[in-house]
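---------- Forwarded message ----------

FYI, see the FdhF/YdeP family oxidoreductase record below. Original note from H. follows.
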Amino acid sequence: MKRSEITDRPTVEPYDHPTGGWGSVKSLVEKSSAEGLLASGVWAELSRQNKPDGFACVSCSWAKPAEPHPFEFCENGAKATIWEITPKRADRDFFSRHKVSELLDWTDHELEKQGRITTPMRYDAGLDQYVPVKWADAFAEIGAELNALEPTSVVFYASGRASLEASHMWQLFSRIYGSNNLPDSSNMCHESTSVGLPESIGSPVGTVVLDDFEACDMMFFFGHNTGTNAPRLLHQVHDARKRGVPVITFNPLEERGLMRFKDPQSPVEMLSPDEGVKMSSDYFQLRAGGDVAAMTGIAKALFALDDAAKALGAPRVLDADFIAEHTAGFEDFERFVRDTEWSAIEARSGLSRDDLEHTARVYARATKVIANYGMGLTQHRHGIDNVQMLVNLLLMRGNMGKRGAGISPIRGHSNVQGQRSVGITEKPELVPVDKLEALYGFTVPKEKGLDTVEACRGIIDGSVKGFVALGGNFSRAVPETALVEEAWRRMRLSVQISTKLNRNHLLPGEVTYILPCLGRIERDTQASGPQTVSMEDSTACIHASDGRREPASPELLSEPKIVAELAKATIAGRGRVPWDEWVADYAKVRDAIEKAYPADFKDFNARFRTPGGFRRDIAAARREWRTDTKKANFKVPNGLDPNPDIDTNGADVFNLMTVRSNDQFNTTVYGYDDRLRGISGSRMVILMNREDMGRLGLRDQDRVDVETHADDGVSRRVENYIVHGFSIPKGDVAGYYPELNPLIPLWHHAERSHVPAAKSVPVRILKREVRAAAE
Ligand SMILES: Nc1nc2c(c(=O)[nH]1)N[C@H]1C(S)=C(S)[C@@H](COP(=O)(O)OP(=O)(O)OC[C@H]3O[C@@H](n4cnc5c(=O)[nH]c(N)nc54)[C@H](O)[C@@H]3O)O[C@H]1N2
Ligand SMILES: Nc1nc2c(c(=O)[nH]1)N[C@H]1C(S)=C(S)[C@@H](COP(=O)(O)OP(=O)(O)OC[C@H]3O[C@@H](n4cnc5c(=O)[nH]c(N)nc54)[C@H](O)[C@@H]3O)O[C@H]1N2
Ligand SMILES: [Mo]
């Protein structure tokens, strides 16, 4: 079970089967039996997943259709369900048998694999163990501890899974207590979207819904591993491809899901021997961080096509009417694009002018285009430039705010977008301060709170003294692992509301609690009866979710209940929130959300069971631009280079992308089989271009250490990784998150949005000379 035991030889073989297909069915059957679940019980839950009267999947946030498929789940959504409904338990007995220092040697996989936590636990430093506590004692002590701390020295983190109801209560608790320190996993994820899109189009979220996918006549995919991270979206891509819609993908890695797909719900496709549907009509393996360059090239080619059309008196290629009526900043953007040389574009993107001109021609022929993107755009120093550049491309041809067209950021956690919609944000200007103050009779703190990077800085420098987490595995998800982990133990208070054991639990502060909660698939019964919760998906549609399963333990409390009890123990007498009434009937929390956000959540309780969800009010989707200019703004990027000021100093510096495998959900590692990339047996791998390997004298399966290239005096290194040749551009290397997070400097983040730049970490690859000796 030791960490080191899994670094043995991985196998890396090209996986040339389509996504979906039999491989995914086999993987599911294996996962349920490994968890000791009968297939029949699993099927019963899975058939309710993402249905109007069922529960919202706990995996990704992709949209849930009004008319679902018979099985509206994918391989990875099913894995997430199986992982939550497991019969395994990390119970009192487990914690009495293992010291925390012992558990620190376990892998992320082994920790969570112990199963659901059943009892509230407090860390006992003398025993170096977690010991069971009564809920009432836990709440009382945490309340007293919080009251002894300065509110601005406490962080209230949320990981993106908790419901709209729990989340709205969470931010009220934090703000009445006196803190805007409400970072969210979104800070590590789509914050480049949340900062970039409002400047461009005046909306912080995407503008498309499922219906647009049915109407579009072209799609882009930039930096998203759809087959693994939002597999249900493959249905929309699959349908579009069958209609002959071109899909052009830009990704340094050949991700199977966007190459070939077999619909596991279609008997005809499953039984046919062919290779499935070709999902991308063109697939361009650009250099990581080369997206601004690639998009500048496409824009440049569009200008050239437009020039030619004008010269011939043919119809324009740019949508001149849309640009004149709806946009600002076009001239500056045009100048930037025309002034950028093809040589620079080709060098930085790693793509040829021909390929980019071809893309522009395909794009110019389409009239309704959706641009999808993920972490490959947001997790860069120039993450905001990436997002805004993609919007620029859409604006050039009026592909915004009309049916079949728009921007589609593919969100992460199943309710991460929703948490932001109901007040979880460190930026007080994004919450309805006046309404909250009038409704609940307290003063909302006005100074900006800490985001994720700032919270880490505070933990490291000691100014953050308390950390309360509504889900997640913060210390493992953030950069600069070594410094954060060390500093965590100096904190006064660490409280984790969790379902499963993870590494963050193993970093005790002076006072440390694990508070176990119900999962979303479980029945949540309160005074008024069974409760329903709600989530917002990636397309801003709100859905009801009903858990029916027997709770993993009778001692578990729901998230709203835990938040309310923490609040009552901490801020009793402050603010007029009827905590007990809300917990008794979550419909009252929904009424409260509607009062705070009347436009977005109009008739919330009446509408939230609408099949397919009801949509929040997204102004940009109807061409109302809530920006500084009242227009959609073309934005000029700060140059083509994602890491402009890194001085390689003559060293052989590679660009490391940290990515997810097909067998994990963030820091939750289900297993060691990244089937769609053909890698199995280990996650301690570095994927590298064969020419680069040759230059460094490396062969497949050689051991390497990886070191961050930075001159800030901090040494960041991971050891004993296995290198393997892979289809990846020269100069780029890839490996798995979160194991590689110790390599990411805390200061290496997107400008302004502070998203850690997890897709462009400058590293050196050092061959270990132990190979011969070890054999
Ligand atoms: N099964 C499963 N589903 C998930 C998750 C999970 O862990 N497992 N996580 C959830 C969460 S929180 C999120 S945020 C999403 C994440 O979903 P993704 O956005 O797909 O996240 P990553 O796995 O980090 O993969 C990023 C992709 O971008 C590519 N890429 C890397 N660098 C660049 C670049 O510079 N340019 C371009 N164009 N591409 C690049 C990588 O090759 C990879 O295909 O998925 C959500 N859904
Ligand atoms: N290097 C690198 N770092 C990254 C990324 C990357 O691509 N590369 N991606 C970033 C992104 S996009 C994200 S979103 C973050 C993710 O960061 P987090 O959201 O903090 O991490 P998760 O791994 O999703 O959290 C898993 C834990 O959540 C708890 N949990 C699960 N279900 C529930 C529930 O229903 N309720 C409660 N209360 N707890 C629950 C379990 O105890 C589990 O151990 O990581 C970021 N870090
Ligand atoms: Mo995320």
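H. also flagged this: Residues 1-7 have pLDDT under 50 and may be disordered.
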